[in-house]
């Protein structure tokens, strides 16, 4: 036991090099309990003893104002009869040479819908971490200007209440090229909002999948959802959420009153 403490480690993703993965495995030998958010992470780390618990707690429903820029964009989209989509990134970054959070895919999607399809949509893409000067951010702004997408694509670079934004949306996108157990996906499912995500990771039941990094397939899935041609699950309901909460409460109780291994 590390410093006489009962140690619980939760792993939300596994994108590290082989060397770092090896270090993580050695560190995990000191843990009393190892929690992963999906089976894929356990396989990558070669774990034998672990528990799978999604990193999800039900979002608190509360009225919260959207930032003025986003609110005006949403109101304009609705006034023009456009469907509204949203996606998010904590920090713009690259994984295996590609845009991890799929900002580029979102831009291509909106451009495709505007030019070639009979569905008109607008999209809000939020980035929590400051992105000024980031090559992906700069390129996105250039594409928005070049393709005349300012009325259809809002790139918001400040934290906001994503759950509040979701309640205005017709669908939520998660076009990542790798993932752990995305809270964005589970929150959308909990609220009963269609969520379209890449097949780059294990996704909860009810998620609508598209082929990773395939913008044509993303467009097809999005159009089918917006046209009502896809069977959609009901909101997850309280049962699944209560189960997640119960498991974490049990973990805290065990950490406070650990079993005696002496």
3D structure, described in words:
The chain has 262 residues and is an alpha/beta fold. Helices cover 39% and strands 16% of the residues. It is built from 9 helices and 11 strands. The strands form 3 sheets. A 6-stranded parallel beta sheet has the order 8-7-4-9-10-11, sandwiched between helices. Strands 1-2-3 form a 3-stranded parallel beta sheet. Helix 4 packs across helix 8 (215-226). The longest helix has 19 residues, at 238-256. It is globular, with a radius of gyration of 20 Å. The mean pLDDT is 90.
What secondary-structure arrangement, pairings included, does this model have?
Layout lengths: L7 E4 L6 H11 L4 E4 L2 H7 L5 E2 L15 H12 L3 E7 L4 E2 L2 E2 L3 H14 L4 E7 L7 H12 L6 E4 L5 H5 L4 E4 L8 H9 L3 E4 L9 E3 L4 H12 L11 H19 L6
Parallel strand pairs: 1-2, 2-3, 4-7, 4-9, 7-8, 9-10, 10-11
Antiparallel strand pairs: 5-6
Helix pairs in contact: 4-8
Strand content: 15-25%
Please outline the major beta sheet.
6 strands, parallel
Query: Counting H and I runs of at least 4 residues, what is the number of helices?
Result: 9
Mean pLDDT: 90
Spatial gap, N to C terminus: 10 Å
Q: Runs with pLDDT <50, length 5+?
A: none
| Backbone structural class | alpha/beta
Helical fraction equals 25-40%
Number of strands: 11
Strand order of the largest sheet: 8-7-4-9-10-11
Shape: globular
């Amino acid at each position: 036991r590390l410093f006489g403490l009962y140690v619980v480690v939760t792993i939300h993703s596994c994108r590290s090099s082989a060397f770092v993965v090896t270090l993580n495995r050695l560190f995990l030998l000191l843990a009393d309990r190892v929690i992963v958010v999906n089976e894929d992470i356990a396989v990558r780390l070669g774990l034998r003893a672990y528990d799978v618990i999604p990193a999800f707690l039900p979002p608190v429903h509360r009225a919260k104002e959207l930032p003025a820029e986003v609110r005006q964009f949403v109101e304009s989209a609705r006034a023009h009869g456009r469907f509204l989509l949203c996606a998010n990134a904590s920090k713009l970054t690259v994984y295996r040479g590609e845009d991890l959070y799929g900002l580029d895919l979102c831009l291509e999607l909106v451009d495709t819908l505007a030019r070639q399809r009979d569905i008109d949509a607008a999209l809000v893409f939020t980035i929590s971490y400051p992105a000024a000067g980031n090559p992906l951010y700069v390129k996105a702004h250039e594409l928005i200007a070049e393709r005349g997408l300012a009325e259809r694509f809002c790139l918001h670079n400040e934290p906001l209440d994503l759950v509040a934004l979701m309640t205005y949306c017709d669908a939520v996108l998660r076009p990542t090229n790798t993932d752990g157990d995305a809270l964005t996906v589970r929150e959308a499912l909990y609220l009963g909002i269609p969520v379209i995500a890449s097949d780059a990771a294990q996704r909860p039941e009810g998620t609508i999948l598209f082929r990773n990094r395939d913008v044509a397939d993303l467009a097809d899935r999005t159009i089918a959802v917006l046209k009502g041609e896809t069977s959609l699950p009901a909101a997850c309901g309280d049962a699944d959420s209560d189960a997640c909460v119960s498991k974490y409460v049990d973990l805290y109780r065990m950490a406070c009153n650990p079993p005696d291994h002496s």
